Amino acid sequence: MPLAWFACCTSSPAARALILLLAAGGALAQEVNIDRLVSPAPATAPLLSPATAAPAAHSEPLTAQRWHQQHDLFYERKWGIRILGVRAVSSGWMLQWKYQVLDANRAAPLLEKRSRAYVIDEATDTRLAVPAMENIGELRQTPRPEEGRVYYMIFGNPNKLVPKGGRVDVVIGNFRADGLLVE
After folding, report:
1. Domain 62-181 class in CATH
2. Handedness of CA 113, 116, 122, 126 (dihedral sign)
3. 118 — alpha (psi -120 to 50), left (phi > 0) or beta?
4. pLDDT confidence of residue 12
5. What is the pLDDT of residue 21?
6. Where in the chain do CATH 2.60.40 domains reside?
7. pTM
8. What pLDDT score was predicted for residue 135?
9. Which residues pair with 89 in a beta bridge?
């Protein structure tokens, strides 16, 4: 079988050029620079996922665990709560914010009915409110706070605007928790 036939069947440009050079004769192969015949692939940096790339110390993504390490003490001292997180529920159509009351007096403003509660999506700057059901009312708890008890609020997420992994800010009256990761 002629070597030119193999050149047509191979997918590698370097192999094709080498086969054609061999077919033309050994003397020609010595005189011709193979690098000229094969166009080099453009030099591009390899694509790395955020998990494999080594980001700079100041631009590391803030994980939920790192967020808690950096912010828990502030919310415990100022508001008397421990933030447990924001989670997508109801197949992503709602977001649930959970927190534990550590000091009932400081946490009282979070449980007042008069305090408007909403979530702000950091990507789109959209406010998501607590939905009010016809027979139930707002999907939030408003009892007297008890120390050690876990409370939650449900926020609507129309069209699944905030995906898992998105960042949100929780605002309740004067309370604000920025940069929470949706789990």
Report:
1. mainly beta
2. positive
3. beta
4. 55
5. 45
6. 62-181
7. 0.63
8. 84
9. 94
